[in-house]
Structure prediction request, 136 residues.
Amino acid sequence: MQQQVVVSSGSDSDPRYANLDDRKRKRMISNRESARRSRMRKQQHLDELIVQASNFQTENAHLTQRIDAVSQLYVGVASENNVLRAQMMELTDQLRSLNSVLQIIEEVSGLNMEISDTLLEPWQLPCLVEPAPNAF
Prediction:
């Protein structure tokens, strides 16, 4: 008679190993669940970053438009400022010429025609400054 030897895993014949296999199975399930939660958190974080990037792009486009508008206003104001400076120089030259004519008339006629110093330097005259319109 031949004797058959059946080789089995330790968990089939020994209850100590059955408990170990049960713990191993529970640990595997727990690890899988933990990995699933980790993937979900990672995906949620990625979704939040995508939304944040979209918001930043929108804000960037808005700020770019505002910068363009302000730049156009600046160019206009700078141009107007150059025109006003040129006009001021022209008027200052005319005023100096008129002052010279008045001095000549004063010397020839003997009349005392006094011109205030503020007229010779019109940029020092007090003036009302209107606030610039708000571009925003």
Remarks:
- Confidence is low (pLDDT under 50) at residues 5-11.
- Residues 15-109 form the longest helix (95 residues).
